[in-house]
Amino acid sequence: MFTRAKICAGVVFCVLAVAPFGGVAQAEPSGGSGCGNGDLTWAVDQPINMIPRQVTFTTAGVLRDCVGLDGIGGATVAGVHESVSSCLRPAEGPLTFTIYWSDGETSTVRGEWPVGIVQPTVGELDVIDGLGAGRRVRIVADYNVLTPEMIGGCLGAGVLSGTGKVITVAFV
Hints:
Blueprint: H1 2-18, E1 34-48, E2 53-67, E3 75-85, E4 93-101, E5 106-113, E6 121-130, E7 136-142, H2 148-155, E8 159-171
Antiparallel strand pairs: 1-2, 1-8, 2-3, 3-4, 4-5, 5-6, 6-7, 7-8
């Protein structure tokens, strides 16, 4: 169950990182602008189980219901996250994600992501390039860490992938 949380955390980071950049190049996003709905998927390069080990998360997602972002209704997100992970230890670590906005703009988000067993996960990341550069985004995501698949994976051969929901992504 903690393994899924770590994997989901990687996915959420990517998705959430994408949501905060939801702005157009012609106008910088204002505080409170962002996206209010999204889905994430994540996968790791080796199974997450009860033994802590270094893993690489690959994350992808979709952001929807964006407001306050001229000409942007949604986005896709992609990124990579490395972390020492186990079913009993959250996947925390440096994340970098690219957000591909529906208007053709991109944003790059980076920062530490505080994923734990208790959901939702809430954190702020820096926009380091592209739309919203120099700003921060607040992300709220749920990594579905207590699903039967996650629990079964932790008790068995390990967890290789998972899903999550982006609740909100907002510029602060």
